[in-house]
Each structure stands twice: as structure tokens, then as C-alpha cells.
């Protein structure tokens, strides 16, 4: 038996590794050193191979969200942070990270409206809105509207077909009731009529809520009441459209958008910033000027306000060029195939058994559940999935029928070579672990 302790590298030698030296710049020497010391102890305990010390120490560094390559084919993946920011938005975030004029008019030297340029950009993008406001996320926007317009036990009238769960166990009805508003459910799961709303309206009505069922579809014997009909009921209509599409887009014909919803007569539209808008996490409120003013002046608004980084990213997203979200949604299957074939050629050249297969990508983020985007993927044995997630640049793919699919649709094209390097490194790792050729396995 070889005593693994004889092969424990010295701490200073490990710390001199260029990747750990770079991490020291980011995380500080104390954090990196203690990660290395803890990792070397695992080698002494025989739990880690000496060759893996640097990777393990990097992975053990405290804090820090790690950038990953999203090869899942899910454009807005909630677990991967939904929308990736555009280069313009990233630059804006970095520029705003220090002191910035978020609440100061540099001309007069006086206090100015917080985030006024981002708000102006949002209003310009949706001229139908009398005014706009931005909070932390879509849920915060709902909470603010419910508290300000129906708090203190007033009623929110909502169809039973729109009592949705958004994900991770969060249910809109619970969220709304947590504000002290009462829900007045009308209609049934599949059918709700205008008369149902009419009967429910009374002196204690706060508003009528219309929720876009963004992550499921009800089909068959169904009917719902359009906003245009609800807007004639004489009570405010709040529409939660979910996705943050500002105007209609032919690629996603089933997705409601802010401009059309306002034109149909909604008094207030609520949407997320990090779904189809392709921006930072934020809750967008667009609507009539008096209503927006009422929300902005409510004491709760202060607790839900967005930080300067969000405002910077939002403005750059609204005024800048196309976002990674829309680049990924719009990329042509032919271009994607050609790109994937280039990666395939490098991998095959490295003696890796991999195939190019047709696959389906989706919008994700609880949006457009019925839309599939024809895509192409690299198909690898599923044994690659875990080590690729643990790679120095983690690559997250999707395991489908026993194969790991890597869809380059949401991978920045300048990261193809990094992705390729990661796959080659994992192949070598798997080869040395099995001491033989890789499991190749047929497709299906
Ligand atoms: C996503 C979504 C929400 C929640 O928005 P967050 O920004 O995630 O808080 C609320 N309503 C609908 C219809 C949604 O699709």
C-alpha cells in the first residue's frame, strides 16, 4: 500500500499555482490559503488525489456565484439565474458599482428621482404607460399592488383558473393573502365569465387581477374573460403578464405583452425584468400615472426598491442592442448546427465518442410552455454530466434518455473552445478512472 501522505504537496507550492494566484486577487490570501489547507488535509486523509488539489481548493473557496456555461437548451433557466445580461448591461453594472448619480442631478447638485434614466427608458419603450415604477422582482410588484390597492382586508377578484404556483412551492394566492388583502375567487378552473366578475364586485373590491398562466396551458372546454371586457367594470384591472415582453413578438405569439395589455384597458401591468425582457431581476410596474404614483408613495415601496446595479442593468438592457436571451431565442437552427459541428470535429479529433443530434430547446423561466425551438446538441454518455458540472468552468447540460445533451444555443459563441476543453478534460478524467476506453453506448 502506498501511503498517500507521502504525496501531499506543500502549501506554498500549491498556492503558487497560477489559477490559485488569480483567485487570491479576487478572494484574498486568507480565504485561498484556508481553502488550500483544508484541501490538503483531505489528501492526507486519502480522500483526494494530489493532482486534484487545485481544482478542489478552487471549488472550496467561500462565497462567490460561479459562472457556468448553460448548455441545457433552456434559455431562461431559473436555477442558472434566468436571463444572462447583455455586454452593455454588464458594463453598466460595473460602471455603477462605485459612487454614481443614481439620486443626484449633477447639473443642479440637488437630489433627483432615483433611477430616473432607467425609468424614462422603460416608459419610452412602452409609450402606452402613463408612468412606470420598478421594484425587486415580479412577486414584489404584486405585493406592492395588493398592499396599496387592496390591503386592510379589501378584496382582489381573481379567476379560479388563474390561481397559479410560480415555482419552488410559491403560490400567488398565498403571496397575495400575505399582504392582508382577501382573495375573492370567481368562476371555475376551466371557465370564468364576465358575469362571475360582475357579481363579485362590491364596496370592498380593491381590484380585479388577471394573471397570465405562464407555465401551463388549459385546453378543451375553457373560457376566460379578456382584459378589454374587464376594463369596463369600473374597478381597477391589474394584469400580471409574467414574462416582461414589452411589445408583441411573432416568435412567441401566445405571450402577452405590456403595450397590448395596456391598450386593452389594464390599469396596471406587472412583469419580471429577467424573463423575456432579458435584463436583471426586477419587477416592472407600468400603468396609469395616478396609480403608479400611489404605489410609489406607499411606505412598502421603500422596502422593495431596487439597487443602483439593477437600475443600471435595466437601462442598458432597454436602450442597448439585442440581449443574449433574444440572440438565443432567434439563432437559426442551421447556424447552430454549423457551430455544433465545429465543436464535434474537435472532440472527435480528440478521440471522444460524441454525436450531433437534433434536439428541442425551450424558453423556460415559466414562459411559453408550448413553444419548442428546434435545436442541435452534442450527445455524450451520461457519465459526463457530473464531472462537467464540477469542471473549472462548469458546463451544465441536460440528461435525456440516458444521454447527456449539450445544446450550444445559450452558450456564448466565444465560449465554444472553453466548453470543448472542459469536455476533453473530463474525457481524460473518465478514461483514467476506468483505465479503459470510455463507455460509448448507442443513442437510444
Ligand atoms: C414569473 C412570474 C411571477 C414572479 O415573478 P418573479 O420576478 O419571479 O418574482 C409572477 N407571475 C407570473 C405570471 C410569472 O410568470
From TrEMBL:
Enzyme class: transferase
Main location (coarse class): cytoplasm
Top-level taxon in the UniProt lineage: Bacteria
Annotated L-seryl-tRNA selenium transferase N-terminal domain residues: 5-44
Keyword Protein biosynthesis: yes
Localisation per UniProt entry: Cytoplasm
Reactions catalysed: L-seryl-tRNA(Sec) + selenophosphate + H(+) = L-selenocysteinyl-tRNA(Sec) + phosphate
GO biological process, one term: conversion of seryl-tRNAsec to selenocys-tRNAsec
Record Pfam families: Se-cys_synth_N, SelA
Pathway assignment: Aminoacyl-tRNA biosynthesis; selenocysteinyl-tRNA(Sec) biosynthesis; selenocysteinyl-tRNA(Sec) from L-seryl-tRNA(Sec) (bacterial route): step 1/1
Cofactors, names only: pyridoxal 5'-phosphate
Gene Ontology MF terms in the entry: L-seryl-tRNA(Sec) selenium transferase activity
SUPFAM superfamilies assigned: PLP-dependent transferases (SSF53383)
The keyword Cytoplasm is assigned to this record: yes
PANTHER family associated with the record: L-SERYL-TRNA(SEC) SELENIUM TRANSFERASE (PTHR32328:SF0)
Protein family membership: Belongs to the SelA family.
Record's protein name: L-seryl-tRNA(Sec) selenium transferase
Organism: Paractinoplanes abujensis
Lineage: Bacteria, Bacillati, Actinomycetota, Actinomycetes, Micromonosporales
